[in-house]
Sequence to fold (117 residues):
Amino acid sequence: MELAAFRQPTSLTLAGKDAGFSGSFLLDRSAEEGVQLTVAFEAPFPEAALIYSDEDPARLPVLELRGEVVFGSAILPRERGGLITLDPGAYDAEALEAAGVSTVAFQDSGGTLRVLE
Fold:
């Protein structure tokens, strides 16, 4: 499932009644520089992957850390360019930063990202 913003800042919340989605959530770059897409997840997706497709800071979607966000795997933009595959574990904003994830890629709302694989 590709998630992107094109011309206007957008906020998107994804939720579900089950954790049956087993594909990938692709957080794609914005079509215009400075157009921010903020994405929040209100359900766990243990069979799904969270993948950023680009590391351009001017076009990055923002993952809102709200509650516990659960994915089977996660690939996020690196602070110094490129992408990083997160090891299994729980990451709050401080732990994401310590792992080398770009601080532009997430918004700290007191939650955690849990990666299972």
User: Anything to note?
Assistant: The mean pLDDT is 88.
